[in-house]
Design goal:
Low-confidence stretches: 1-9
CATH topology: Alpha-Beta Plaits
Helix content: 10-25%
CATH architecture: 2-Layer Sandwich
Mean pLDDT: 90
Distance between the termini: 38 Å
CATH class: Alpha Beta
Number of domains: 1
Number of strands: 9
Oligomer: single chain
Shape: globular
């Protein structure tokens, strides 16, 4: 069982990060953030894969469609350290945190973090400390997270022993936000 701080006993963690934004050149911003992650802006962290990119209608009071994707990382950092690196990357892309669900240039959400057990199977870490809850508390309500997460994990159980697709099936069609696919799986890395 992981400690409350989410520490791990050596080895890499697998992290899924939601990447989105609805201000400026949305696609260029997403590509820039992923490229900077791939180039090592967050130490001891590497990009493994990216989902397709989806255009989605906003949730909450924000205006303007978002672009959303999920990337898979491997990291030697503890979840809190990884989150700090992601927040710094947001700031480098002009993100200002004024109020919840406001328009933003870049949003990087730490969704699920896993570590390999003694048999090499990925097990999700559970963390609930000030400023960091894992898995992300609203992941199961967001098609714009579950669809790209499913792109990367397919039939693999990644959240509470269920697949992203199973979680997606529980969201009513009227609550879904995805408008269209903008890029195919992996194209965000190019």
């Amino acid at each position: 069982m992981p400690s409350p701080a989410g520490s791990h006993a050596g080895g890499e963690l697998r992290a899924f990060v939601g990447v989105g934004g609805n201000l400026g050149d949305r696609l260029a911003t997403l590509r820039s953030a992923v490229r900077m992650l791939a180039e090592g802006i967050v130490p001891r962290t590497r990009v493994v894969s990216s989902s397709a990119v989806y255009e989605t209608r906003p949730v909450g009071p924000s205006k303007g469609a978002f672009l959303n994707a999920v990337i898979e990382l491997r990291t030697e950092l503890e979840p809190r350290q990884l989150l700090e690196g992601l927040l710094e990357l947001e700031a480098r892309h002009g993100r200002e945190r004024r109020k919840r669900w406001d328009a933003r240039t870049l949003d990087l959400d730490l969704l699920v973090v896993q570590r390999a057990d003694d048999h090499g199977a990925w097990q999700e870490l559970r963390v609930d400390v000030e400023g960091l809850t894992l898995p992300h508390p609203r992941i199961g309500d967001r098609d714009f997270v579950l669809v790209p997460l499913s792109d990367l994990t397919g039939g693999e159980a990644v959240l509470d022993g269920c697949t992203a697709g199973a979680w997606l099936d529980a969201i009513a069609e009227t609550e879904r936000t995805i408008l269209r696919r903008v890029l195919e799986v992996g194209e965000l890395l190019r």
